[in-house]
Amino acid sequence: MARLLGSLAGVPAGQVVDLRAVFCELLPMRVICDLFGVAEEPGRELCEAMQTVFSTSVSAQEMTAAQARVFGMLAELVAAKQEGAGG
């Protein structure tokens, strides 16, 4: 959560910020990633893919591609955990 709040701290005073896009949508996935010990970079990619999966404004092809990315990333993370690499 501190990382997400830190990104908001860099916004100049008086500038309008879409809190849903830069904080609320990312927070649940970031918490889940933290609980499972997923490193920052794979976690960011996973969050982006999950946002696409849950979006109501993407095409069926984009959603299918995002689902494949999510499943692929999760498979890689599980394999890394099984090998002891952490993920």
UniProtKB/TrEMBL annotation:
Coiled coil: none annotated. SUPFAM superfamilies: Cytochrome P450. It comes from the Bacteria. InterPro entries: Cyt_P450_sf. GO terms for molecular function: heme binding; iron ion binding; monooxygenase activity; oxidoreductase activity, acting on paired donors, with incorporation or reduction of molecular oxygen. This is Cytochrome P. The lineage of its organism: Bacteria, Bacillati, Actinomycetota, Actinomycetes, Kitasatosporales.
